Amino acid sequence: MITSPLLRALRTGVKSLLLHKLRSLLTTLGVLFGTGSVIAMLAIGEGASQEAQEQIRLLGSQNVILRSIKPQDDPNQGNQTSRVARYGLTDGDLARFEETFPGVESIVPIREIAKEVRFEDRLLHPRVLAVTPNYVQATGRLLWEGRFLTPEDDRTLQNVCVLGTEVARALFPFESALEKRVKIGSDYFTVVGTLAPRVRLGEDRAQPGTEITGEVFIPFGTARKWYGKMQVKMRSGSRDMEEVDLHEVILTVSHPENVRMVADGAREMLGRFHEKKQDYEVVVPLELLARAEETKRIFNIVLGSIAGISLLVGGIGIMNVMLATVTERTREIGIRRALGAKRRHIVTQFLVETICLSVGGGLFGVALGIAIPWGVERYADMKTVVTPEAPILAFGISAGVGIIFGLYPAWRAATMDPVEALRHE
Amino acid sequence: MGDESSVWGDGASAVAELSEVRRIYRMGSEEVHALDGVSFTIQRGEYWSVMGASGSGKSTLLNVLGCLDRPTSGVYRLAGEDVNRLDDDALSEVRSRNLGFIFQSYNLIPQLDVLENIMVPLFYQEEPPEDGEERARSLAERMGLEDRLGHRPLELSGGQQQRVAIARALVNDPELILADEATGNLDSQTAEEILNLFDELWREGKTLVFVTHEPHVAERASHVLRMRDGRVHEVTTTHRERGGTV
User: Fold this and answer.
1) Less CB within 10 Å around the terminal CB: N or C of chain A?
2) Does a structural domain hold residue B79?
3) Which of the residue ranges A148-157, A222-231, B50-59 would you say has the lowest mean pLDDT?
4) How close, in Å, is residue A4 to chain B by CA atoms?
5) How many CB atoms lie under 10 A from the CB of residue A125?
6) Distance between CA atoms of residues A218 and A114, nearest Å
7) pLDDT tens sequence across A21-64
8) B246: distance to nearest CA of chain A, Å?
């Protein structure tokens, strides 16, 4: 039965802890929740950040996106004669970008056309986007079937369209959309292709009862010809008319390091030509990405400190119980010392017990820390990511807490006077 | 042999030699001379009993003999080794190798079973013997505990617990066995059994020191040391031989 001293210390330690099962259990709870919350918080933070980064990446990290926004209603303009709201990016802006901007690889003008889309008796209200053929390259979208719009389509003003996944699925659930003729507004367009979904299959759940949004792409030139610039919106008896040249312009920059330069240039140029009203915005996914990284960093620091404090509290709880244990077992310490235990034996014995407590708490904490993100993902519909480092980190910290907070009680036990300790009742 | 100085024996077979041992405690501004110049020698194979009123210094004497406490001054040699020169680790090693303790309240470790309790002193030796477990088992058998090996101390009677403690005191084959009122908590019949066991150990050649209050217990030893005010009041020999009774 004389095995290695450490193994024996471990066995003795576990035995001592099992003598007070409830106390040991309660003591480990602090570390358990500390470790669990470290892992869970890191997982939720990581999930949120990955989701944000994913969304930003969908916008294209090398893109600078210019968007028209409707300015706040100007009361002076609200008279009867001028019901047409004119705002947003203009063809002139587009021309200036095309002419003067260095470092821009491609420019995609986008118009949004407020028309419904039909096929037989199915009616949808997707976003109908008039784009140039380079849209797919700029946004990194992938084709599912057929082809995308071509320069030829644009030049010859063909009535062709490409459907986004959702629209293709809604209009043609059981057949291929290719070569079908769908009605956009009052004109027929032939489907030449469909796009692959933006997100992995199975995750783009269409909630029953809600209207399916989605996208339909038509050639930019064709749209100009058929629908003009005027948009008419029927609204509770009155008609609102808007005139917008371009709803969005995507500038694709040749090198990521030029993104900032192009963005600044775009802001400056637009600022000069849109002095009167702020009717545009410049969205830079790369900047958003940087901001998201920063947010994640702050999030991690805040969550990390909270979790760290809870681990600290857990550690103090362990120390408290171990100090009580040492006092309670003063006599045992005296006996062991009388029978020949050296100071290091006593230190080892109590340190092993503390480490057992904290490591035990740490192990269950890891389980809890993996279970919580799982539950959150399942019931709160939030993405969570348990990185492999998180449990290792949390477990390491909890073991460290055990050693640090176990040292003092163990030292107290070891430095007791054996004679005094033996006399202790 | 009424005079302590006459007890000096030849160094070869001396187990414990005390010479002018003092142990002074400081209590606030007062100095307490728990031991005030104690000298005597215990030869191998002797059976000493120590008597004295409480406060006479017999507990301190036992602590010094057991290397739990160090003399403030004077020399204590255990098996030829000057205890005062040893550091804490070395003193612990001496306790685990050369000493066996038997306490009034048994002092077994509650969370360990009987066999483990017997083996505790071996755990702490720098080089534990290979045959430790066999030794512990045969001692347990001798103490009549062979069917109690897996029990916890609290599941045993007082007499059984003290037998475990005696087995524990013997497991390291010590130079000196120290018993502190080892029968104080036992009924007279069990106490008699334990005392017979001590006789038996003595007959086998063990060296024992036995602290007691009771004169009739003390009379069973070969030497009776009476303490008074931290000094050796007298040492008497009972002329009791190892072989039998007086």
Assistant:
1) C
2) no
3) A222-231
4) 10
5) 13
6) 13
7) 899 999 999 889 888 888 888 888 888 888 887 777 777 778 88
8) 34
* Token code pair at residue A235: 């609204």
Size of chain B in residues:
246
Sequence ranges of the domains in chain A: 5-55+291-423, 70-75+82-278
In a domain, B137, yes or no: yes
Residues sharing a CB contact under 8 Å with residue A95, sequence separation 6 or more, in sequence order? none
A281: which strand partners?
A67
Neighbouring CB atoms inside 10 A of A213's CB total: 14
Q: What is the pLDDT of residues A373-409, one digit of tens each?
A: 999 888 887 888 888 888 888 888 888 888 899 999 9
- Three state DSSP letters for B38-92: EEEEEECCCEEEEEECCCCCHHHHHHHHCCCCCCCEEEEEECCEEHHHCCHHHHH
Closest-CA residue in chain A for B132? Answer: A2
The predicted-structure confidence for A246-274, as pLDDT tens digits, reads as follows 888 888 888 878 888 888 888 888 888 88
A20 touching chain B per CB within 8 A: no
Contacts of B133 in chain A (CB under 8 A): 1-2
Question: Which residue numbers of B have CB closer than 8 Å to A's CBs?
Answer: 63, 66, 68-69, 88-89, 92-97, 99, 101, 103, 107-112, 115-116, 119-125, 128, 132-133, 168, 172
Instruction: Tell me, yes or no, if A342 comes closer than 8 A to chain B by beta carbon.
Output: yes
Q: Is position B24 within any domain?
A: no
Q: Do A345 and B111 touch (CB under 8 A)?
A: no
Q: Which residues pair with B29 in a beta bridge?
A: none
CB contact under 8 A, B68 and A341: no
CA distance A314 to chain B (A): 26
CA distance A341 to chain B (A): 5
Chain A residues inside the 8 Å CB shell of B88: 342-343
Q: Which of B89, B99, B103 sits opposite A342 (nearest CB)?
A: B89
Nearest to B202 by CA among B41, B42, B47: B47
Report the complex ipTM.
Answer: 0.91
Largest Cα–Cα distance in chain B? 55
Structural contact between residues B209 and B177, judged by C-beta atoms closer than 8 angstroms: yes
pLDDT at A235: 55
Is B93 within 8 Å of A340 when comparing Cβ atoms? yes
Helix axes B158-170, B114-123, angle to 10 degrees: 30
CATH number at residue B205: 3.40.50.300
Tell me if B2 is assigned to some domain.
no
**What 3-state DSSP class applies to A70?**
coil
Q: Do B115 and A15 touch (CB under 8 A)?
A: no
Contact partners, residue A32, CB within 8 Å, separation at least 6: A314, A361, A362, A364, A365, A368
Domain containing B221 equals: 44-67+88-237
Find how far residue B123's CA is from the centre of its chain. 20
Distance CA B138, CA B190 (A): 21
Structure tokens at B120: 């505790």
